[in-house]
Amino acid sequence: MDNLIEEQNIIKKDWRSIKLTFALIYPNIYNVGMSCYSIHLLYHLINSRDDIACERFFIPEKVKYPAQQNGNILKKRIVSLENSIFLSEFDVLGFSIQFENDYRNVLWTLEAAGIPLTSNERQKKAKNQEIVYPLIIAGGPCATSNAMVLSNYADYFVIGDVEPSLDNLLDLMVESKEKSGKLNLDLARLASIDNIFIPSINSECKRSVLKNLDDSSTPILQIKSIFKDERTKKKRKNLEFGDTFLLEVNRGCPYSCKFCISCHHNAPFRNKTFKNLVETINKATQVQEIKKITFIGSSVTSHPKFKELCEHAVDKKIDFMIPSIRIDHISKDLIEVFERGNIKTITIAPETGYEKLRYSLGKQITNTQIIETIKIIRDSKIKNIKFYFLIGLPGEWEEDVDAIIELMTEISELGFDKDSLRVNINPFIPKLNTPYQIYTDYFSKENFTDLKRKLEKIQKSLIKIPAIKLKIKNIKDLLNKAMIQAIFSLGDKEVSKILLDYYNMGATYGALKKAAKNSGFSFDEYFERIKEGYKPLPPSCSI
Fold first, then answer.
1. Whether domain 5-206 has CATH 3.40.50
2. CA 304 remoteness from chain centre
3. Omega cis (within 30) before 323
4. What's the CA gap between 384 and 422, in Å, rounded?
5. Is the pLDDT of residue 277 over 60?
6. What per-residue confidence (pLDDT) applies to 141?
7. Tens digits of per-residue pLDDT, 149-162?
8. How many CB atoms lie within 10 A of CB 161?
9. Contact at 8 Å (CB) between 365 and 358?
10. Which regions of the chain carry the CATH code 3.30.750.200?
11. Are the beta carbons of 331 and 376 closer than 8 angstroms?
């Protein structure tokens, strides 16, 4: 963590009075990890138990791969934030994994802690040398979507919502530690927990769902990251959630867009009740000063009383932030509330510039609706709009790429200041267990270069428009990361083995290609298998 940042509401426990130690790891840098609601929630849930100490860990900035190449960083002691404890001294290492491109950071963390990377290697060394290693558990969207790529490295996976099984899992760990002084879990009892996947025995598992979202208690005293001086704050704008209160409004999404993991991995769509949300805000403001609330959810505006929720925050003189908002949910009345909540930027996701393709995704929104909505925003005090588009979608034609250019050109002519329209263009990534998981055509060697041409075409056209700030800096790097993400998103046990070589060779796209070549693995052949219906997940593991 940056030494120019200080934290409030951290929890430090005396290790002499607890029964189990749990390292909560977000495998990315501090700024990114602390903006993730899951970290705050897990920290709160685990530390709510008197018998367990939970401490956080993030990776340093600008690390090299593999970890052994980071001599200077490793000398500074990679330790937990709360009590500066080495990771190897914890009983459990729990990884919350949100993005496939962080898989390399999972391995970096283990190596930096002096822990063997594979579960088999840990078991052998523990048996032969009587070394006690921490148990490695992984959860989060990536684990739920596809546990296979990390199955050689994590001992267990939590599939789906954590709340229904967390206490049962922790009880087993505490019991095991008390009996023998180390964690040696009874696999039969562990496998009896429905949403725990055990790769070593290919156990049956099923995604867990917290039916009543009110049963997930929002952390009241959340960790706040406070800058020690205003000059540092201005330089570190990427810590945007640092001093805000994170409030989960809903989970899942009611619109079932065919490419989106939130719709399909977090189904069904669930709201917290308005009463619960208001009571949470009121309790939080009674014990601390809250200047800003960030509403969390894939479709926060789908809450039946979202406008009233915003008004409650405004009435308490609290600003708020919102994630991407449904275009067809924006109205003059809602924009007026957003103005009072000091919203500076609205994020929308048209996905495409052409209505027919947008409809095929599951988004029934016309270009006329988009333009009319943009006019409402333009006439308000909110002058910045962030756009998300995808290219390489199933059924995409050349005119669809042209349509993005045409739509954004038309919007820019409505009258916006320089750089106020912030456009993000990303390649579509097929995700396992979504309707679009089989659409891998654009990642074949033959078609992958076409994505580059399309991005260059959009860049060349939009970069000339003063009102548009195009978030495409390095097209080659963007595409390389997309290929890595696609392979790991759809990968199986064979890809899990390649992951280790990819990491050891430097964790770049070039390293992935070299690792695949050394293993006789063909990207094209694998994507073709996926296209033909190959399922990487074992039949016993269902989401």
1. yes
2. 26
3. no
4. 8
5. yes
6. 94
7. 999 999 999 999 99
8. 22
9. yes
10. 334-480
11. yes
What's the full length of the chain, in residues? Answer: 543
Residue ranges of the chain that CATH labels 3.40.50: 5-206
Q: How is residue 220 written in tokens?
A: 């009241």
Strands (E), 219-344: 224-227, 245-248, 250-251, 270-271, 292-296, 319-321
Q: Which residues pair with 7 in a beta bridge?
A: 225
In this prediction, residue 316 carries a pLDDT of 96
What span, in angstroms and rounded, lies between the C-alpha atoms of 90 and 135? 9
Residue tagged 């530390």 (tokens): 47
Number of Cβ within a 10 Å radius of residue 98: 18
Max CA separation in the chain (angstroms) = 71
| Locus of tokens 């899951």 | 38
CATH number for the domain formed by residue range(s) 334-480 = 3.30.750.200
| Burial of 385 per CB tally in 10 Å (0-12, 13-18, 19+) | buried
Nearest to 236 by CA among 226, 222, 250: 226
Give the model confidence (pLDDT) of 109-132 as tens digits.
Answer: 999 999 999 999 999 988 877 788
Tokens (6 digits) for 67: 């970890």
CB atoms closer than 10 angstroms to residue 395: 11
Radius of gyration of the chain (CA): 24
**Residue pLDDT, tens place only, 28-41:** 999 999 999 999 99
Q: Nearest 5 degrees, angle CA 453-CA 458-CA 463?
A: 130
Q: How many CB atoms lie within 10 A of CB 519?
A: 13
Helix 523-531 × helix 445-462 angle, to 10°? 90
